[in-house]
Amino acid sequence: MSSSANSFLKRRISRQSVIQWADNVVTVGGDAPVRVQSMTNTDTADAIGTAIQVKELARAGSEIVRITVDTPAAAAAVPSIRDQLDKMGVYVPLVGDFHYNGHTLLKDYPDCAQALSKYRINPGNVGQGAKRDVQFSQMIEMACRYRKPVRIGVNWGSLDQDLLAKLLDENAASSHPKELREVMAEALIQSALQSAARAEELGLDGNQITLSCKVSAVQDLIAVYRDLAKRCDYSLHLGLTEAGMGSKGIVASTAALSVLLQEGIGDTIRVSLTPEPGAPRENEVIVAQEILQTMGLRNFTPMVIACPGCGRTTSTYFQELASRIQTYLRHQMPIWKKDYPGVEAMNVAVMGCIVNGPGESKHANIGISLPGTGESPAAPVFVDGIKVKTLRGDNIAEEFQVIVDEYVKNTYRAQ
């Protein structure tokens, strides 16, 4: 967390969970930074395809990756996925997402149970009636046996119907009945808390439990997590379920998560975007990172500051340069983060005219002010607030990229 964030944001006190594979230890909760999660959308039975997507998500910055484990074929493929990742040097922890038959798959495929770093259990989908407690207990017992942490993830679309019916009956008999949405929120929270208490009774370390209560409406999510945060000290995973596609999904997730994070609620997040056709899966990782970075909670990759454009910038050159530099910075990060610690906090300004260009450029670590319509065809470059040169001609983009590279190597070189 940046020092500026420390001055106004106090994190909720929570227990700390440890998720591990090989030497890669990811802590969640406590004094750990807010972690970024993602989930594959491949058929897990396709071990090669799933391993490739996990690698892409991890390379984009996902610190934990969840995979669907829904069939015997998927469970059988998990050890192979883990092996493929290990051979590629990708040690990101894998979370198995279980519904309906998780108790059977974990029992019948012990290599799968061992290869996963964490289990996600949905209390609404572990069984019906008398089977629910038995099958939930079986999954927790497997987590204890293999020393795996657990996320108890309640979802409004698959809520425990027996619990909901009980609360609805009590509400109907009350002299001051609540609205349906309030009753559903209480059912979500009670399902999570009761399941966590039962897991601890069965021997699971409470520090190794993370809770989530996901809904798809922004205000409902905020209300549920505010209440949940007051009633427990488990680490909390945030996410707006079924957030949607494109700008709608990004805006809705940002609106909900930002409010909660600003209040110190949330230890790990996922942005559940519906991918647009052809869009890379790792977009959800980038959005999650940008939420945390723009709020000043974490730094992941150098940020590009660019003006929106106006009548002074009828040329698209500055837009193209900003896009080019932003893409270049993100692609360089897997290399730079090893050799140039601190580079993720760097700011680069690409501005389009003389109005705000020089001023914004001076405030960035590196900035360039491109000429606007009718302005002199010159682009002053500023490094740490000082004008160092003026670029002209057809190779401004290439020359500016060289300046960025030199700045990184000279400023962030490991001591």
Structure characteristics:
single chain; about 425 residues; alpha/beta; TIM Barrel; Sulfite Reductase Hemoprotein, domain 1; 2 domains; five-stranded mixed β-sheet; elongated
Question: Can you offer a commentary on this structure?
Answer:
This protein has 415 residues and is an alpha/beta fold. It folds into two domains: 16-295, Dihydropteroate synthase-like (TIM Barrel), CATH 3.20.20.20; 303-412, Sulfite Reductase Hemoprotein, domain 1. 45% of the residues lie in helices and 19% in strands. Helix 3 links the parallel strand 4 and strand 5 (94-98). The radius of gyration is 24 Å and the shape is elongated.
Assess the beta-strand content as a share of residues: 15-25%
* Name of the CATH class of the largest domain: Alpha Beta
Spatial strand sequence of the major β-sheet = 3-4-5-6-7-8-9-11
In CATH, the topology of the largest domain is named: TIM Barrel
Give the overall silhouette. Answer: elongated
The major beta sheet can be summarized as: 8 strands, parallel, barrel
Judged by helices, strands and strand pairing, the structural class is alpha/beta
- Tally of strands: 17
Number of domains: 2
Q: Considering the protein shown, what is the CATH homologous superfamily of the largest domain?
A: Dihydropteroate synthase-like
The CATH architecture of the largest domain can be named as Alpha-Beta Barrel
Task: State mean pLDDT (0 to 100 scale).
Answer: 95
- The residue ranges in which pLDDT falls below 50 over 5 or more consecutive positions are 1-7
Helix content: 40-55%
- Note the gap between the termini: 22 Å
